[in-house]
Amino acid sequence: MRRPGAERVSHAVTRRGLLLGAAALGGTALLSACGTGRAPLMGPPPVAPPTRPTPLTEAVTVQKMRSAARNRDVNLVIIAPDGVSRVGLSVCVALHGRGADARTFLNLGVQDALNKAVSAGMPAFAVAAVDGDDYWVDVGKGDDPQRMLSAELPGWLAQRQLRPPTAMFGISMGGFGALRYARDHKDLKAVAVASAALFVSWPDAKSRKVFADRAQWESHEPLLHTDDLSAASTGVWCGNSDPFARADRKLIKALDPAVAKMSPGEHNDDYWREIMPEVVKFVGDRMA
Questions:
Q1: Largest CA distance in the chain
Q2: Beta strand 72-79 with 125-130: parallel, antiparallel or unpaired?
Q3: SS3 letters across the chain
Q4: Please, which residues have CB within 8 angstroms of residue 259's CB and are 6 or more apart in sequence?
Q5: What does pTM read for this prediction?
Q6: What pLDDT score was predicted for residue 15?
Q7: Distance separating alpha carbons of residues 193 and 191, to the nearest angstrom
Q8: Does the first or last residue of the chain, that is N or C, have fewer Cβ atoms within 10 Å of its Cβ?
Q9: Strand ordering across the sheet containing 125-130
């Protein structure tokens, strides 16, 4: 049973996910994503080469990439439908929750949902996930996930003959990050958030011990910048028993998104697996 009010979630990696990661990295994908101490960024962010050539017909890959923006190595997970060439596919970026990493999406039914949607006639697209932290924003620690998403990830995708990101999906902390990214990328075709970890007040945000001060939090908090978001391209899902249900209802009321679904569920993998087919369809329909 998850402690109410905490957004940290533990995502177990399945045996299949571990084997896929090991195959893609020669064993290195299973290293910890915690990293070492953070040093100040220096110079422009380079586009790191793949750790090995990526088979364009391989549906799921996990590779390590060096992120100058984050000052560490990060996992890059690509999930595509089975039996489809990845060349030229559109991309939805998936942002994980606090305490997880990019590999969590190997366990949440993403590929199964893609396979079924494509079989039903939806145009194929790929999901790309990378490691993040600190609500996917720069909080002054020499670690800038938003810069990684904007300046480095498009190059990594291009190396794999994938298109630049045109959609965002975020879970929990990743929902915060996806909405923050959407403020600066208004051309996104879809932004989907599930159990978004949003904060209705500074004391609530301060309790997470992430943001340096109130001004920093206010500059990033999606609930304070709903005018910068597109209602027509946004979908919001949240369980009624989720500790962030109140905040997500506030987002729905302020934004009036294209999809707003509050339903039975908690802040856990079971809920996210349940809604994954709906999220994939929402994103795919708009990307098409």
A1: 49
A2: antiparallel
A3: CCCCCCCCCCCCCCHHHHHHHHHHHCCHHHCCCCCCCCCCCCCCCCCCCCCCCCCCCCCEEEEEEEECCCCEEEEEEEECCCCCCCCCCEEEEEECCCCCCHHHHHCCCHHHHHHHHHHCCCCCEEEEEECCCHHHCCCCCCCCHHHHHHHHHHHHHHHCCCCCEEEEEEECHHHHHHHHHHHHCCCCCEEEEECCCCCCCHHHHHCCCCCCCHHHHHHHCHHHCHHHCCHHHEEEEEECCCCCHHHHHHHHHHHCCCEEEEECCCCCHHHHHHHHHHHHHHHHHHHC
A4: 192, 234, 235, 236, 237, 278, 282
A5: 0.81
A6: 37
A7: 7
A8: N
A9: 60-67, 72-79, 125-130, 90-95, 165-171, 190-194, 234-239, 259-263
Region of residue 125 (phi > 0: left; psi between -120 and 50: alpha; otherwise: beta): beta
Whole-angstrom Cα distance, residue 110 to residue 131?
17
pLDDT given for residue 20 in this prediction: 40
Check residue 58 and give its pLDDT. 84
Mean pLDDT of the chain: 86
| Nearest-5° Cα angle at 288, 277 to 190 | 65
pLDDT exceeds 70 at position 55: no
Tell me what percent of the residues of the chain surpass a pLDDT of 70. 80
pLDDT tens sequence across 4-38: 333 433 333 343 443 344 334 333 333 333 333 44
Section 187-203 average pLDDT: 98
Q: Please tell me the distance from the alpha carbon of residue 45 to that of residue 22, in angstroms, as a whole number.
A: 27
Judge whether 61 and 78 are in contact, CB under 8 Å. Answer: yes
pLDDT at position 245 is: 98
